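Hi everyone,

Forwarding the result from last night's run.
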Amino acid sequence: MRSSGHSSRPNMALRHALRLAAAVGRRGCCSQHPLPPGLLQALRSVAGDPNVSVAEAVRQQHGHDESMHRCAPPDAVVWPQDVEQLQEMVALCHRHRVPMVPFGTGTGLEGGVNAVQGGVCFDLSHMATISELSVEDFSVAVEPGVTRKALNAHLRGTGLWFPVDPGADASLCGMAATGASGTNAVRYGTMRPNVLNLRVVLSDGSLLHTAGPGRSARKSAAGYDLTSLFVGSEGTLGFLTQATLRLHPLPEAVVSAACTFPSVRDAVGCTVQVLQAAVPVARIELLDEVMAGACSRYSRLELPEVAMLFLELHGSQRGLAEQQQQAEELVQLHGGSVLSWAQAPEERERLWAARHSAWFAALALRPGCQGYSTDVCVPISRLPDVVVETQRDLRDSNLTGPMVGHVGDGNFHCILVFRADDPEEAQRVHDFTERLGRRALAAGGTCTGEHGVGLGKRVLLREERGAVGLVAMRRIKDALDPLHLMNPGKVL
């Protein structure tokens, strides 16, 4: 068994491993703390009886996301119907000093919705208005119940779309809260540059418009950038109740390809050169040998079990031919080959459906085992070395951890598949994830490119930001949530 190299870590890692081991058998554990007298009735008087629940099954459903962290249920779940109801109920919880946890669709990967201190979970799915669509200004406003797919369905026929695609059909306000990214980020960016304004309910029930009410300008030099402050705040500073988003024109033509390479280093090296050559890729995704084989079997694509890149080009019909030729030359320069180009929508969708099913494909490698997905992001120039070192670490640790990544922006994931009821294997997983995070930090990167900090990466965040950075973050938290009621136990 490999040590993390820090004398204070092994006992901590073992405790974490035992918690992971308990997660499978005890995920449904639902303890409850008594809420202050009169609070439930007051919440019901605002939202109505059907929109307040203390049922165990409902609480359990809202006590975990898609992560490995043990279910931590809230003491009650409420469904506000509009922002005014939400403000009233938040003010009630603030008055009674009760913790509050925002809940969107529960697709997070770092325990962001787990109510580790109990309290009230605010399920915002009933707030699902799409408004302020301006085709001329390329902008739209959405409430937390609107998902990525629902917005793009609403935009059908306008010539516009919202391209940030984390794979899951997540809530758009939830995506803003976690700073989500996805396969299109190399061209269209992450959530951060695509959010123009946020309507936020603060912990005392007051309402804040981060860029000012009704504003959707593409840029501003007016004071502090409050919008960016709340993007990625993971529900620890307030409830994101509306996001004004930047839309993009649909490309005239799209073409995708699967490319094979002799090794992961060759595939990542090709990615770096594609970017340096300014080939306008919209997506460029790495699958290592294990992941390529798993996706091929799971999605029945008949792909070779070798390192691969899935790439996609967006542009005009005339421009794509030149871009395809340029991409093929760079692939061949790194010993690779393009299996085929897919232009028909059904062919492209089949390829990307396989990529989006990577989680399930990885789990199929060891039926009956648990999965844990972790991510890091490093500067592009350091990416080949970090990916190869990580692959070696997985082999040395005797772990099943197929790798996949949005390598166009230096971000990659390991999907670790292991027996959570085996404390020794669970500890090896924990030790590996800490080494991976520190490897990224040593390369000038970050411990998480898009999953967020949540419960699992708080120690790494402290190392990444340093003492002064952590103090600054705590002061911001104290200023906006002085009673520390908003999603307590997360990030800081």
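Residues 166 and 182 are 4 Å apart (CA to CA).

Cheers,
N.
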